[in-house]
């Protein structure tokens, strides 16, 4: 069974729409020239190269078949309604449009800029001519606003034996292509799986090697860190030793300088201190401070007692002498 399209009404804008009435398919002519045959008043072409509906070459001179179908009443009514609405809208716009009061004699008309950014106006307007070449475009047919539903009846066409292809004979290349393509795809998938397995194995080996290298790198880093710490510790120890040696050398030098400086200073200082009595013999100091003052005090007491005794003796002797003198004087007077 072969279905043939029913005729369709074309839209009123002149766009091309293919349509044909149902008719019986003519017998197939083989090995004949492309002659035109009459069938129900329409030409039938045996070769599409001679069909005027097939465009050959460029489409600049495309032949558009005229539309002979009657316009759709619904489309006409819709266009009339649109024109009436446009006329009413234009009349309302002219009615409510604000009209100016005209030009007055004392009014001066000047041009005022109403743009957002002001610009300098000059008498000479700068212009430039630019040309460009564009491709020629075909007029696109307008999109139909309404496509009516399919109407009519389908017609059947008798197909004789041998007019269609032989399935068992012509399916072999298709089967060969399908089977070959399937086998090739399966082989590619197997090869891809083997390649993926090899890649996974190589990746596992590479990962193991990488892990071993990472462990070795970590061990070397730890060893390097320990060596660096040991080096820093040795450097600190050496710096401390050098510091102590330097301090010891400075102390020894200061001590030697002090000894040499005080070699002549100490005797003079000791002599001066000795002269001022800071250095003394305890026995001598005890004799000088304890015994000699006591001895001098005792001698002074003894001498004072002797003086007193002499004075008393002198006084006694003087009294005795005075008495005897008085006695002698009295005796002599008598």
Automatic annotation (TrEMBL):
GO CC annotation, single: cilium
Keyword entries, A-Z: Cell projection, Cilium, Coiled coil, Cytoplasm, Cytoskeleton, Flagellum, Phosphoprotein
Chief location bin: cytoplasm
Origin superkingdom: Eukaryota
Pfam families: Radial_spoke_3
Subcellular location: Cytoplasm, Cytoskeleton, Flagellum axoneme
PANTHER family (alphabetical): FLAGELLAR RADIAL SPOKE PROTEIN 3 (PTHR21648), RADIAL SPOKE HEAD PROTEIN 3 HOMOLOG (PTHR21648:SF0)
Protein name (record): Radial spoke head protein 3 homolog
Organism whose genome encodes this protein: Pangasianodon hypophthalmus
């Amino acid at each position: 069974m072969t279905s043939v399209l029913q005729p369709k009404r074309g839209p009123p804008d002149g766009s091309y729409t293919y349509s044909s009435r149902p008719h019986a398919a003519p017998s197939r002519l083989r090995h004949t020239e492309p002659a035109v045959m009459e069938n129900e008043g329409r030409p039938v072409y045996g070769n599409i190269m001679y069909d005027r509906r097939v465009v050959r070459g460029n489409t600049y001179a495309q032949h558009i078949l005229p539309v002979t179908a009657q316009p759709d009443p619904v489309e006409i009514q819709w266009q009339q309604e649109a024109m009436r609405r446009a006329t009413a809208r234009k009349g309302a716009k002219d009615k409510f449009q604000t009209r100016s009061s005209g030009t007055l004699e004392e009014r001066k008309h000047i041009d005022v800029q109403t743009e957002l950014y002001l610009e300098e106006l000059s008498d000479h307007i700068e212009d430039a001519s630019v040309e460009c070449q564009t491709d020629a475009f075909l007029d696109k047919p307008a999109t139909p606003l309404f496509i009516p539903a399919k109407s009519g009846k389908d017609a059947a066409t008798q197909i004789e034996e041998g007019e269609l292809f032989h399935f068992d004979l012509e399916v072999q290349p298709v089967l060969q292509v399908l089977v070959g393509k399937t086998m090739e795809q399966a082989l590619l998938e197997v090869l891809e799986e083997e390649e993926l397995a090899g890649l996974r194995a190589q990746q596992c080996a590479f990962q193991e090697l990488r892990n071993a290298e990472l462990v070795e790198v970590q061990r070397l880093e730890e060893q390097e860190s320990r060596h660096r710490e040991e080096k820093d510790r040795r450097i600190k120890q050496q710096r401390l030793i050098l510091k102590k040696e330097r301090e010891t050398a400075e102390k020894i030098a200061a001590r030697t300088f002090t000894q040499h400086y005080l070699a002549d200073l100490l005797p003079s200082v000791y002599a001066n201190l000795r002269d001022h009595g800071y250095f003394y013999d305890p026995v001598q100091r005890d004799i000088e401070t304890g015994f000699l003052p006591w001895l001098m005090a005792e001698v002074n007491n003894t001498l004072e007692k002797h003086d007193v005794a002499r004075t008393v003796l002198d006084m006694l002797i003087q009294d005795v002498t005075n008495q005897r003198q008085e006695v002698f004087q009295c005796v002599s007077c008598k």
